[in-house]
Specification:
The complex is a heterodimer. Chain A is an alpha/beta fold. Chain A has helices at 2-18, 37-40, 43-52, 59-80, 90-102, 107-112, 137-140, 146-161, 164-176, 187-214, 223-231, 256-259, 266-280, 298-310, 322-342, 346-359, 364-383, 399-406, 409-426, 432-447, 482-500, 543-563, 581-599, 610-620, 640-649, 654-662, 696-711, and strands at residues 85-86, 114-118, 125-127, 132-136, 520-532, 567-571, 624-634, 666-676, 681-690. The longest helix of chain A is centred in the N-terminal third of the chain and has 28 residues, at 187-214. Chain A starts with a helix and ends with a helix. In chain B, the strands form two sheets. Chain B has an eight-stranded antiparallel barrel. In chain B, a hairpin with a 2-residue loop joins strand 4 and strand 5 (80-92). Chain B is elongated and about 60 Å long. Classes of the chains: A alpha/beta, B mainly beta. At the A-B interface, helix 22, helix 26, strand 9 and helix 27 of A face strand 8 of B.
């Protein structure tokens, strides 16, 4: 009775929690609560601790394992602080609860594992040697039920329990160095050996994972479907057939040729697809060859666990909560949509957003995603960049990519302007939508200078003749405020014309230096690498030294800023305490933004997370964000022998050669890029390569110099 | 001359922006430097050369000429500094041949030249091309010294051979690198190539002993400034 009551209570709390996210005004996932130890502890200390507990008698293997621990601890920590790993949020909490359910019978193993969700579109989950299980949102977005997640976690738990990660590394090193049994293998045979071993481990994880899973109350019949989900993972996530009618209204109708691509006429669409597939040479992969793959093929994986499940039936698809699972999956799908926009995979984002709209037709977030995706596709098309690779898609999902491919830059721009304006009228508080609209109208005006009168401005206006795409003339008729839109449209034409006309007056002399007058800056995720190229050094990258620089960099930035009378906030995930969750939230957002900015091939494109980054800027009371870092390389002295010999031959050279031999030789690179997140422009690029080893003082000087340039 | 230099520095300081980069905006530095070079072009004060030339100069493979110098420097712009320097120098005279075609025809004349210089220098840091962030990194300095010197019988002697000190301008260019070894403490290493502006048409004035000594002293000073290594330690005062 108590057990039942507890379950009801947990379910109730879960359902309350599950509705904490408002999907109409969806806010992106962010870390919550206390920052876990995995994020706050220094990598060097973690590595040391792990090394001290290493038990391996064989000398060679021991050295390889030590090397792995050193490298992997820092790499995993880099990943943890990279802004994509979430903790304490609804999704992570849910996944942790499922893991608890899975490992109920093995509390000792459970105690050693921690779960974090990762903002990644990749359909994947993976484990580290020190017991961190990462589950990508890309995987959660595709799962059909909680039981499938449970099996995935059981599989990952085995990877940890059996130390697969480190063993795989040791074996790979043995194969690469042609040690032992691998001495006589050719290069292709070595590749095959690595793949075989990896598959062996995967099969073991599947089988032992199945043993763990079978001890739970989860449904035994759900697992085989998980492999089908994984098989379709490389294709974009599309939940419903493409429906072009979404873009239509009473006044604005798409031509039948386009609409036929949609579910309204499935047969025509399929025929079209098969013809298009034939014409475009897009082929769907039919045979799966796993010879050199790290994982066995789905068929083999299913077979390997089939016996274990053959006599087992029953169980539940959901234990932690059905509603909770669907909410979590929806969050994951909403996040995938955002990530696709950030990765500039606009057609995929459009397909997913249109699918999600079926379930949440009133979601402002989804409507904005559709408008932003169209904006991205239109901008790419206008620049002449490819918008989609149809061969990546499954045949039944070809509607959206064909739509993006068939429509011209003109048509897509009209459609995007229409959607952006509709969305802006619905959500006038958005800052990014008017900017996108303004940018797109300007780009359109620049390229189609005679298209200003191609659109009916009022319902009473005459139908225009002789247009290449006649249906587009009705695109801007059904806004709440047509006049406001056409004012913006005309302004774009005026601006484009003004830029086109050569200036009559003499060109004004550009001032040599424009003062930026920045009084506050946010320094985000600084990076520093210390390398040692000397031969006797086996490890060329000194990860611990790099970490030490990053721990102390905050003081340097603040000292330099204070000296210049500036203010500075530092978002440095390398130096974080358990209470600094706000910094980790900022870190996640800023990393998303920087990553997106670095992808953009189209100049002046407005970021899909402009609103978010601007909100962060307001929080920090500055528009100026700076990313900085450096590399210090210690180099070998090549002329050592010559120096010694020349001193023996010409003794007066002794002070010179002694100085040469004593002074460390090296070079360094320092960089800083300052952005104005409001204008989306790079304000300052400060890059210096110096023939000097990077020292604490040099870094301090460089930081001061950059801040000085920002201020003056 | 001194007033001119001070005036120039003051003007520069007024014109310059309130803050410049450098190590945390510190602009004024003081250096203790040592210029040295193996005794190749000119002998040291013990009349030693690093090679055996069968003349009156003795052979010492570790013979050096050295010049201690004190420099004060002020960073005016982000890539430009100005400074003043004071140094003292001493060397043996260069060997003198009676017959230039006969290497053995030297005249025994182991005088010592001693003197001091005051200099003004302009230092350029090139943040873009030489990748420096003043005062750290590569630099190039153009200097003008005014050297006053006289000759003496030997290194301990205080009796001047010339009634009136000789004064000669010296032009020098220095290329080097500055790094920071402790907070505010700079280490400077570089090479200096210089030229003492000297009249060399003195070969016919060998009759007069004083003129001869003067000619030898000038020749030595010329040889002394040709090439020098520089090592210095500095402190960023403010």
């Amino acid at each position: 009775m108590i057990k039942k009551l507890t379950i009801i209570l947990v379910s109730l709390i879960s359902s309350i929690c599950s509705f904490s996210q408002d999907f109409n005004q969806y806010k992106t996932l962010a870390p919550q609560g206390k920052v876990p130890k995995d994020f706050t502890e220094l990598s060097a200390a973690k590595a040391q601790q792990e090394l001290s507990s290493l038990q391996e008698k064989q000398k060679n293997v021991r050295r390889t394992k030590q090397n792995f621990i050193q490298q992997s601890t820092f790499r995993v920590d880099d990943f943890l602080t990279g802004g994509t790993v979430m903790f304490g949020d609804d999704v992570t909490q849910y996944v942790s609860q499922v893991l608890e359910e899975v490992l109920k019978q093995d509390p000792a193993l459970l105690k050693q594992l921690r779960v974090y969700t990762v903002k990644s579109t990749a359909v994947n989950a993976f484990t580290t040697n020190n017991g961190i299980v990462f589950v990508n949102l890309g995987l959660l977005a595709r799962l059909e039920n909680e039981a499938q997640l449970a099996f995935t976690l059981a599989h990952e738990a085995v990877h940890f329990q059996k130390k697969h990660v480190i063993n795989s590394y040791v074996r790979t090193v043995e194969i690469n160095q042609a040690r032992g049994d691998y001495r006589k293998l050719s290069t292709p045979e070595r590749g095959y050996a690595k793949s075989s071993y990896s598959k062996e481990l995967e099969t073991e994880a599947d089988q032992l994972g199945a043993d763990i899973y079978l001890k739970t109350a989860y449904a035994k019949d759900s697992v085989h479907r998980l492999f089908d989900v994984l098989e379709t993972a490389p294709a974009p996530l599309v939940l419903n057939p493409f429906d072009a009618t979404y873009f239509e209204s009473k006044q604005f109708q798409l031509p039948d040729t386009l609409v036929n691509l949609t579910s309204r006429n499935v047969k025509t669409a399929q025929a079209y697809i098969s013809v298009a597939q034939m014409l475009l040479g897009g082929q769907q992969e039919t045979t799966k060859d796993d010879t050199l793959s790290s994982h066995p093929s789905v068929a083999k994986r299913k077979k390997s666990i089939a016996r274990k499940f053959s006599e087992q039936h029953g169980g539940r698809d959901f234990i932690v909560g059905k509603d909770r699972f669907y909410t979590i999956r929806k969050i994951a799908r909403f996040e995938v949509c955002r990530m696709l926009l950030l990765e500039h995979r606009f057609t995929e984002a459009l397909a997913l957003a249109l699918s999600l709209r079926k379930e949440d037709p009133k979601s402002a977030y989804i409507q904005a995603c559709i408008a932003k995706a169209l904006y991205g596709i239109a901008r790419k098309k206008l620049e002449g960049n490819p918008v989609v690779h149809i061969s990546d898609w499954q045949a039944q999902d070809w509607g959206t990519p064909m739509f993006a491919r068939i429509l011209t830059g003109y048509e897509l721009s009209v459609l995007a302007m229409r959607e952006l304006n509709k969305c802006y009228e619905a959500y006038p508080e958005s800052e990014e939508l008017p900017l996108m609209l303004k940018d797109l109208t300007y780009q359109f005006a620049k390229r189609f200078d005679d298209a200003r009168e191609d659109f009916r401005r009022t319902a009473n206006a005459k139908t225009l003749e002789g247009l290449e795409h006649p249906y587009t003339q009705h695109a801007f008729l059904d806004f709440r405020d047509n006049a406001a839109f056409f004012k913006l449209f005309d302004d774009a034409y005026t601006k484009a014309k003004a830029k086109e006309e050569p200036a009559n007056s003499k060109r004004k002399k550009q001032p040599k230096h424009i003062a930026l007058n920045v009084n506050k800056v946010v320094v985000v995720t600084p990076m520093y690498v210390v390398a040692d190229q000397r031969e006797r050094k086996k490890e060329k990258i000194n990860l611990a030294a790099g970490e030490e620089v990053l721990i102390n960099i905050n003081d340097k930035i603040l000292e330099a800023a204070s000296e210049l009378g500036m203010k500075a906030d530092v978002i440095n995930p390398n130096k974080v305490s358990s209470s600094q969750v706000a910094m980790m939230q900022s870190n996640s957002l800023v990393n998303d933004w920087i990553d997106e900015q670095s992808r953009s091939d189209e100049e002046g494109m407005i970021s899909p997370i402009y609103n978010e980054i601007n909100a962060l800027a307001k929080q920090h009371q500055t528009e100026h964000f700076m990313w900085m870092g450096g590399i210090s390389v210690r180099q070998p002295k090549r002329l050592r022998f010559l120096a010694v010999m020349s001193t023996i031959w010409v003794p007066p050279l002794l002070p010179l050669t002694a100085g040469y031999l004593a002074a460390p030789r090296g070079k360094s690179l320092y960089f800083a890029v300052a952005f104005n997140v409001k204008t989306q422009k790079v304000e300052l690029v400060d890059v210096r390569a110096m023939q000097m080893r990077g020292t604490s003082y040099l870094l301090q000087s460089n930081i001061y110099y950059t801040l000085f340039n920002l201020k003056h | 001359m001194r007033y001119c230099v001070i005036l120039l520095l003051l003007c520069s300081a007024v014109i310059a922006k309130a803050q410049v980069p450098g190590y945390m905006g510190k602009r004024f530095s003081v250096f203790a430097q040592g210029y040295m070079f193996p005794a190749i072009f000119v002998a040291n004060t013990r009349s030693e050369l690093i090679y055996n030339n069968e003349t009156y100069q003795t052979y010492n493979p570790l013979a050096f000429t050295a010049r201690p110098q004190v420099t004060v420097e002020y960073l005016i712009k982000k890539d430009f500094a100005m400074g003043l320097s004071y140094n003292q120098f001493a060397m043996g005279t260069a060997k003198q041949l009676e017959d230039p075609n006969d290497p053995g025809s030297y005249i025994y004349n182991a005088d010592v030249v001693r003197g001091q210089s005051i200099g003004l220098h302009f230092k350029f840091y090139r943040p873009n091309t030489l990748a420096a962030v003043a005062p750290l990194g590569m630099y190039c300095t153009g200097s003008i010294y005014y050297s006053i010197f006289n000759t003496y019988d030997d290194r301990k002697s205080t009796k001047k051979q010339l009634a009136k000190d000789l004064g000669r301008p010296v032009l020098a260019v220095e290329f080097g690198r500055q790094s920071m070894i402790a907070k505010r403490v700079l280490l400077k290493t570089g090479i200096e190539v210089g030229c003492a502006v000297t009249a060399f048409n003195l070969s016919e004035s060998m009759d007069d002993q004083e003129e001869d000594a003067s000619w030898l002293a000038q020749k030595s000073v010329f040889g002394y400034y040709v090439f020098n290594f520089n090592v210095g330690v500095g402190y960023l005062v403010f």
